[in-house]
Amino acid sequence: MRFSSLSELIRLCEEEGLSIAQVMIAEQARESGQSVEAIREQMAGYYRVMKEAVNRGLRDNPRSRSGLTGGDAKRVREYAAGREPSVGGEAATAMAYALAVSEVNASMGRIIATPTAGSCGIIPGVFVSSQERFGWEDERLVDGLFAAGAIGYVIANNSFVSGAEGGCQAEVGSAIGMAAGALVELRGGTPEQAIHAVGLALKNSLGLICDPVAGLVEIPCIVRNGFGAVTALAAADMALAGVRSAIPSDEVIGVMLEVGSAMPDKHRETAKGGLAQTPTGRKIMKELYGQGTRHEEKEPDGQGDEA
Ligand code: SF4
Fold it and tell me: What spacing in Å lies between the alpha carbon of 153 and ligand 1's midpoint?
């Protein structure tokens, strides 16, 4: 890639008069040796999986294998249909869709890891709800996924995108940043505004620990995806309104690395701290596994089928 930081990405966009998505598509085609059509088609396939996960989550109301979670997407959907949600109807829809995809993941269904399975609901929640709201064609959302991918690429190469390495700030936080930046571009904002949205969003999740109850990507992961979708909408709106990240977004990514590196092991997906070790968290773990923890037998931040 010809960029390794968000500032370099903006510079490329400005010098070449391209959007973030266009830069990413060109770079990916060059690096992979594939045609633009081929990589777009692959990304379109990922977007179809995302939409199907939203639909499946709402339609089938899946419960997780552990029996701990499921049904929250439907609850939010029904609540939003019957009453005026405090966050507004559109944000409630994004929230319900994000919960739906996360519930599909918890039920071992097919999702796209964006950037991980634990944070798989945020981008579909924001994208699918925005598509319905603004009447966008799939092709436009495919561009959005490339923009999100460029942002995720920079974060992954300068900090972390997994809870086991850098806490939930790295997973849910990164997904919020990716969704926010991409949404700014989808709504006609400049690359600079999109990058400010990333910094604004990431700042709001710095320090968020990874503490999944019983080592399962369910509690608190699913609701964090719901919150994440709403935060991404808010960050995009702030950036589109002209709010800037006073600390440059690349520096915020550096802080995420610093904070994640200093995080104790117990707050990095081991289920040895945080919510996982509350009296209720321990009780749930004991009911599921006896005295042991499932952590020893699980893959980092897995769950459903990733694509
Ligand atoms: S709490 Fe941990 S496992 Fe759950 S979404 Fe956050 S980073 Fe992933």
Answer: 19
- Report the CATH number of the 6-306 domain: 1.10.4100
Backbone angles phi, psi at 63, to 5 degrees: -100, 150
Q: From the CB of 118, is ligand 1 less than 6 Å away?
A: yes
Q: Quick check: CB of 210 below 6 Å from ligand 1?
A: yes
pTM above 0.70, yes or no: yes
| pLDDT above 90 coverage of the chain, percent | 94
pLDDT reported for residue 291: 59
98 lines ligand 1 (CB under 6 A): no
**Structure confidence at residue 290 (pLDDT):** 84
Q: Per residue in 58-89, pLDDT tens?
A: 999 999 999 999 999 999 999 999 999 999 99
* Atom 8 in ligand 1: residue holding the nearest Cα: 118
